[in-house]
Amino acid sequence: MNKVVPMPLGFSRGQQPADSLFATVMHALDSASKLVVHEPGETLFMLGQKPADVLLLLEGKVKLSMDSEDGRTLIFGIAEPKEILGLPNILAGESYDKIAITLTLCRVAYLAMSDFTCLL
């Protein structure tokens, strides 16, 4: 079950990787984001879904996959903390081309698409 947790999202300067888009977004939009805790097995977005928010993975691991026509699951990667989920689709303004499912307990920051676009 999703749970919104009111807590600051910022990182100290020592924790932010240099020249990181993730760090830039977190620093600029720290107050405009919403933090949600997701349990393992929850779907963050589906294939064909239009991005409404920018999802920044703060803690945990997320499987990025897609089901093939013969019923097998093709895993494209495992997202780790400090990744922006579905970034290529967000930048291109396209629907997601993968499914994102949490593998572990995850903290995800949700930023409004309009705020992210203004930052870019």
Structure overview:
The chain has 120 residues and is α+β, with helices and mostly antiparallel strands. It is 18% helix and 37% strand. It has 3 helices and 9 strands. It has helices spanning 21-28, 87-92, 113-119; strands at residues 3-4, 34-38, 43-45, 53-59, 62-67, 73-79, 83-85, 99-102, 106-112. The protein has a 5-stranded antiparallel β-sheet with strand order 1-2-9-4-7. It has a 4-stranded antiparallel β-sheet with strand order 3-8-5-6, with no helix packed on it. Strand 5 (62-67) and strand 6 (73-79) form a beta hairpin.
Overall shape: globular
Gyration radius (Cα, Å) is 14 Å
Mean pLDDT across all residues, rounded? 81
Largest sheet: 5 strands, antiparallel
The first-to-last residue Cα distance is 32 Å
What is the topology, as strand order, of the major beta sheet? 1-2-9-4-7
Proportion of residues in helical segments: 10-25%
Uncertain runs are: 4-19
Topology:
Blueprint lengths: L2 E2 L16 H8 L5 E5 L4 E3 L7 E7 L2 E6 L5 E7 L3 E3 L1 H6 L6 E4 L3 E7 H7 L1
Antiparallel strand pairs: 1-2, 2-9, 3-8, 4-7, 4-9, 5-6, 5-8
List keywords for this structure.
single chain, 120 residues, alpha+beta, 4-stranded antiparallel beta sheet, globular
In short, what is this structure?
This protein has 120 residues and is of the alpha+beta class. Helix content is 18%, strand content 37%.
